[in-house]
Design brief:
heterodimer; A: mainly alpha; two-stranded antiparallel sheet; 15 helices; 2 strands; 1% strand; globular; B: mainly alpha; ABC transporter involved in vitamin B12 uptake, BtuC; two-stranded antiparallel ribbon; 75% helix
């Protein structure tokens, strides 16, 4: 039984890797966008497993993007290396901010991360000499000369790494620590879990993932602007995807991102304005009627069937 | 003789007594803030009078939008992240009404507030009613979802082009000596004061208001003494949204609107409510004065106008961090 599962995973990964060989540029582009949101959703969920909800995904996404673009532009660092640098920048900024911010809980943490993302945006917009101000900076060329299949493979590699990290978080002792922190902090503390250490660790790692995705996004489109790179979509879409799929699992955000990403891309062609409406509606409906998400509901049904 | 001596000694006593009483009052936070604000205001009036006027008007706008949010937060107990978007929606209704009928935008106050009252009612009945007792994060996400729906509906109906209505009286001005300033902005100050006094009277001196106050303090207790708390929640939520609708019309006369205009007001209102403390309506006035004056002060320096946005975000973080520090110390 267990072998079947691994065979299925291998087949899915093989299909995903071979995807560019039998599809056109448009589909590859769409798939890349969905994978970007998938990784963001998964990284958001990884922090959510500790009970902390961040509204600042766009902030670390943008920091990564700007760090990668500027190091590439000013110092001529290789794009792939600068993507890693973007992740490192997001990691350290998240670590330092986390030392202060992670004392907060619940809605206060959510609102402060939202404010932090906005502060990043205002700073970037006003530092004309470094970041190019409101107009942003344009890179000489996109990564890999703008080849969509190579960009797809790059994002796919990042996504698979994110899924692996998330599985590591689910299968090792980190899982027990984060779950007990989420359920009852007092109990976690009295079981000898260093809550603050785990929170900082998870916060920095997830922010680094968001930074890496942001930097590859910046290199994919070869420009960064404060409004576009720190856009609220990068906070909102992953949240809706994660809610739809089901929280606190690896499978949930993946399924949610694939379903919602496909629907939204179809709707984008039908409604040029306001196609994001579906995200809001999905959030409301899922919270009211399906609080466990698709994966949770299906699993519940299956278990009941047995 | 004796009397006279007594009289001559007693004469300064009331003054000293008054002075001592004032000093005594300084122990209270509100008085400290008030004194600081008055001194700051006098300094500003002498140094940069324009900042004072501008700051006052902006503060009025912030306070009048934040008061309904504080009402929802204090009594219904929900952080309404869709607050500013209800205002945006109301402003679009008012715009629509004005364009269709050709009437003065201020006439739109009545239909818009009625419309938003009904929308608020529907929102409460459809969604928020089921959120009592749900985890805080879920409530936050739900209102976030409502905010997206409102924004995208506006995007769908009216596209993302900014629209505005020009009315002549909105650019009225007055001159004192060599100093000219716009007077229409004081309508926001007036709105804030009227709203504040009205709410205060409503909560203290009417039966429904007292019931609402009791519900906000202790829902279970209120239920035990026979208050229909669901009805109260519905009423307070709808009234607050209707008040936001009134403000949205006033907002439209001065500013241009677009689907994302509300987001920043949601955050600012939440920040003011957090600064003032839960259910503290008076505190909202002080907090909005600090925010409004601070923003106009930074804007008044050439070349630094872009940094004015950051004041508010820094303020919100400082307020929350200080609050959490106090809680930990306790």
């Amino acid at each position: 039984m267990k072998n079947w599962r691994y065979i299925a995973y291998t087949v899915i990964i093989a299909i995903a890797i071979l995807f560019p060989f039998y599809t056109g540029t448009y589909l590859q582009h769409t798939a890349t966008a969905i994978l970007i949101y998938l990784s963001l959703a998964l990284s958001w969920d990884m922090l959510l497993r500790t009970g902390q909800m961040s509204f600042g995904i766009a902030g670390f996404f943008g920091i990564g993007g700007y760090a990668a673009a500027l190091t590439h532009l000013k110092w001529g660092i290789d794009p792939l290396l600068s993507i890693i640098l973007g992740g490192i920048a997001a990691f350290f900024i998240a670590f330092l901010l986390g030392l202060v911010v992670l004392h907060l809980r619940g809605m206060y943490f959510a609102i402060v991360t939202l404010a932090l993302a906005e502060i990043f945006r205002v700073i970037v917009r006003n530092l004309h000499s470094v970041t190019g101000g409101p107009e942003g900076s344009v890179l000489p060329s996109a990564i890999f000369g703008g080849d969509p299949s190579k960009i797809y493979w790059l994002i796919l590699a990042i996504t698979i790494t994110t899924i692996l990290v998330s599985e590591v978080f689910q299968k090792t002792r980190i899982y027990f620590a984060t779950t007990s922190i989420r359920n009852d902090e007092l109990v976690a503390k009295s079981s000898g879990i260093d809550i603050f250490k785990y929170l900082i660790f998870v916060f920095a790692i997830t922010s680094a993932i968001q930074g890496i995705i942001g930097s590859s996004y910046a290199h994919q489109y070869a420009f960064v602007t404060p409004e576009e790179t720190f856009h609220i979509h990068f906070t909102l879409l992953p949240m809706a995807m994660c809610l739809l799929g089901g929280m606190y699992t690896t499978m949930g955000p993946v399924v949610g991102a694939l379903v919602l990403g496909t629907i939204a891309d179809y709707l984008k062609l039908q409604l040029p304005y306001g196609h994001l409406l579906v995200y809001g509606v999905v959030i409301i409906i899922v919270i009211l009627f399906m609080p466990r998400g698709i994966v949770g509901t299906v699993r519940e049904r299956l278990e009941r069937g047995k | 003789m004796n009397n006279q001596r007594c009289g001559s000694f007693e004469y300064p006593a009331p003054l000293i007594y008054l002075g001592l009483k004032l000093l005594d009052k300084l122990r209270y936070k509100n008085y400290q803030i008030a004194i600081t604000l008055i001194i700051g205001g006098v300094v500003l009036a002498l140094w940069k009078p324009f900042v004072l006027i501008e700051g006052l008007q902006v503060a009025g706008l912030y306070a009048s939008i934040a008061l309904p949010m504080a009402l929802i937060l204090g009594i219904v107990g929900i952080i309404n992240l869709a607050h500013g978007d209800f205002m945006m929606f109301g402003a679009y209704f008012a715009y629509w009404f004005t364009v269709y009928t050709g009437a003065d935008p201020l006439v739109a106050i009545f239909p818009v507030s009625l419309g938003l009252f009904l929308i608020g009612m529907a929102t409460y009945r459809g969604t928020i009613k089921y959120m009592h007792g749900a985890p805080e994060l879920i409530q936050l996400l739900l209102t976030f979802g409502i905010s997206i729906v409102l924004q995208q509906l506006a995007n769908l109906f009216w596209t993302s082009q900014p629209v505005s209505i020009h009315v002549g009286y909105a650019s009225a001005s007055a001159t004192i000596g060599t100093f000219t300033f716009g007077t229409y902005g004081f309508v926001y100050v007036a709105a804030a004061v009227i709203l504040f006094i009205g709410l205060f009277h409503f909560l203290r001196h009417t039966r429904i208001g007292q019931a609402a106050l009791a519900t906000g303090q202790n829902p279970t207790g209120a239920k035990l003494v026979g208050i229909n708390i669901d009805r109260i929640y519905l009423l307070i939520f709808s009234i607050s949204i209707a008040l936001v609708g009134v403000m949205s019309v006033l907002f439209l006369t001065r500013h241009s609107i677009f689907p994302h205009v509300g987001g920043i007001f949601t955050l600012k209102s939440f920040c003011l409510a957090a600064m003032a403390g839960l259910g503290n309506l008076t505190g909202i006035l002080w907090a909005s004065l600090i925010l409004g004056l601070g923003e106009s002060f930074v804007k008044s320096f050439m070349g630094y106008a872009g940094w004015a946005d950051i004041i508010f975000f820094v303020l919100i973080i400082v307020v929350i961090m200080v609050g959490s520090y106090r809680r930990r110390v306790k």
